[in-house]
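Design a sequence for this backbone.
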């Protein structure tokens, strides 16, 4: 099976990180994979370490970027893939025509006009698949394959690294600093939890607003904005609980990471979490934009060790059954084999 993957993403971001992760996993599963992407050093280094050939292209903001269009088409003619897999909107606009099957992967409720060059679409949640079908796509060409978490448990990063005392209850949150992630609500919840500290790993346009809000709420001394991090396992190992307060979260690889790294999870019941988390079994769900409920759930998992241990154990079972690398890569392999034969 020969696969060409296309990625035109921002320098930092969970969706972009997953695209490279999946490409490497497909190669590790025995597929002959090539990736075309922007020349971003960390991603190129990871592909090189895995032995995945990389083609560097600009993927400009317009489909009129003739250099990228020519480069992708030339790469496809050379590689002769069975499947071209494009991640998100921009890359899907550059899918070349040819005797391969074109598959677009949607991690959100994106406008379907960007996927006119695709033969099949993958949605990472059932809700996204429903969005695709509602847009006129035949059900037989819409497929549900979620994300998976990848990582290696690491020793806990010393709390002193971020000027945090040992022994205090510590919550961890991850994600782009964007209004969709509702970290403002998390700060409001923290104000009702005296003695609880927060590590927030991520970057984005809301950094200044969140910093100001933390100061206004009187919690700035207990909040650490860590920036974009790649040592997620070490952060999880140092934390006591994991929180996902998002207003909008189509699926969220962070949910799988919470299961994988074994920390009790509290999440707002936005689109993705309510499909992934079983409330009271492998995590606690609270209403979206409800700071008091979020504070109450965090207080429960931080104070009730029996509850926390039960959530962690069930979360691991959920991960192994539905969101492990082996399960998800097998789903991609089976889909590619089926649609390639059909073509």
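Sequence:
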């Amino acid at each position: 099976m020969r696969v060409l993957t296309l990625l035109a993403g921002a320098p930092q971001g969970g969706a972009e990180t997953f695209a490279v992760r999946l490409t490497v996993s497909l190669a590790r599963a025995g597929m002959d994979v090539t990736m075309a992407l922007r020349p971003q050093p960390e991603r190129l280094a990871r592909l090189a370490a895995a032995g995945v050939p990389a083609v560097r292209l600009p993927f400009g903001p317009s489909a009129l970027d003739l250099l990228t269009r020519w480069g992708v088409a030339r790469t496809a003619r050379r590689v002769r893939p069975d499947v071209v897999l494009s991640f998100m909107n921009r890359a899907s606009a550059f899918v070349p025509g040819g005797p391969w099957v074109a598959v677009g992967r949607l991690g959100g409720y994106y406008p379907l006009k960007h996927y006119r060059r695709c033969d099949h679409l993958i949605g990472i949640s059932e809700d996204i698949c429903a969005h695709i079908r509602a847009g006129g796509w035949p059900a037989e060409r819409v497929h549900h394959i979620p994300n998976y978490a990848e990582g290696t448990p690491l020793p806990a990063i010393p709390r002193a690294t971020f000027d945090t005392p040992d022994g205090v209850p510590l919550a961890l949150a991850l994600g782009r600093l964007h209004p969709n992630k509702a970290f403002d609500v998390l700060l409001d919840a923290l104000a009702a939890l005296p003695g609880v500290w927060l590590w927030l790993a991520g970057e984005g346009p809301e950094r200044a607003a969140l910093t100001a809000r933390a100061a206004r709420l009187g919690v700035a001394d207990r909040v650490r904005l860590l920036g974009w991090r790649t040592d997620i396992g070490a952060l999880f190992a140092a934390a006591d609980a994991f929180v996902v307060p998002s207003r909008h979260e189509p699926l969220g690889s962070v949910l799988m990471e919470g299961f994988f790294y074994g920390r009790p999870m509290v999440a707002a019941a936005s689109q993705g979490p309510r499909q992934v988390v079983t409330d009271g079994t492998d995590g606690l769900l609270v209403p979206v934009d409800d700071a008091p409920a979020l504070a109450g759930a965090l207080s429960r998992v931080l104070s009730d060790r029996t509850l926390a241990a039960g959530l962690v154990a069930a979360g691991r079972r959920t991960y192994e059954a539905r969101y492990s690398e082996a399960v998800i890569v097998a789903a991609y392999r089976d889909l590619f084999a089926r649609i390639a034969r059909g073509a």
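DSSP finds 13 helices and 13 strands in the chain.
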